[in-house]
Amino acid sequence: MDFQTKKEFLTFLSGYLTENRRQLFDKVIQYRTRHITVVLEDIYQPHNASAVLRSADLTGIQDVHIIENRNRYTVNPEVAMGSSKWLNLIKYNDGENNTLAAYESLRKSGYRILATTPHTNDRTLEEVPLDGKIALVFGTELNGLTETAIDHADDYVRIPMYGFTESYNISVSAALTLFTLTEKLRKSSIPWQLSEAEKLDTLIEWAKRTLKHADLFEKEFLQKRKSLS
Q1: Nearest to residue 204, comparing CAs of 11, 4, 2?
Q2: Cα–Cα distances in Å, from 206 out to 17, 179, 199?
Q3: E strands of the chain, at which residues?
Q4: Which residues of the chain have pLDDT under 70?
Q5: For the purposes of burial, counting CB atoms within 10 Å of the CB of 134, is it exposed (0-12), middle (13-18) or buried (19 or more)?
Q6: Which of 16, 9, 73, 12 has the alpha carbon at shortest distance from 39?
Q7: Cys bridge to 59: 88, 178, 196, 207, which one at CB 3.0-4.6 A?
Q8: Quick check: helix, strand or coil at residue 158?
Q9: Where along the chain do its domains lie?
Q10: End-to-end alpha carbon distance in the chain
Q11: Is-contact 130 184, C-beta < 8 A?
Q12: Burial of 142 per CB tally in 10 Å (0-12, 13-18, 19+)
């Protein structure tokens, strides 16, 4: 569909949504961003990964990239609280080393890869530059990121710790990182919002995920449009 047809399709779908749902969509879409994205590498504990999805949704992140090398990720609905329904989950699981494939794809989309791990040349959250798009990579609860993920990253970020414990768990680490950086982004003059075309595509997808038998609605819309042309 071209842009105008998509606008008409959204109007058509919106007619089947409640007023409260339409208003909520219009409100939330204004805070969505692809300027920051999240990457989860080989997460094997659905509880923690699903908590990250929840944090991503609540901080306005639209896309979450999931690298599946040894482990397949399944959403834990009790933890995710429906957040996965409003996110785009992009999975990489076709090859032996899906981490490099994910990095290549992200770089083609203009992202700088930031590994969330202590490193010789790491930065604190306050020091992370946001002038360009960034992809934040989080590793497993037990072992953190793989050497491949670390060695091929463009930059490194850490969260300061002042206690005896070695690290934050992944869900807390992601929540702190995403909240800090998205707040910093929204207070900046950087154009971080989705483009009008991206907003339209996202709103259509949200509407389709809300309605049962969305494919039938789309078929009906196209048939009506064809009969009028």
Answers
A1: 11
A2: 11, 23, 10
A3: 36-41, 63-67, 88-92, 112-116, 123-124, 134-138, 155-158
A4: 44, 46, 71-81, 120, 142, 229
A5: buried
A6: 73
A7: 178
A8: strand
A9: 1-30+196-229, 33-192
A10: 15
A11: yes
A12: exposed
Which tokens belong to 229?
Answer: 């042309």
Cα separation, 118 vs 6, in Å, equals 45
Amino acid at 125: L
Token pair, residue 135, equals: 């992809």
What's the number of CA atoms in the CB half-sphere (13 Å) around residue 167? 16
Residues 6+ apart with CB under 8 A from 103: 113, 152, 153
**CATH architecture of the domain with residue range 33-192:** 3-Layer(aba) Sandwich (3.40)
pLDDT digits (tens, 9 = 90+) for 161-200: 899 887 788 889 999 999 999 999 999 999 999 999 999 9
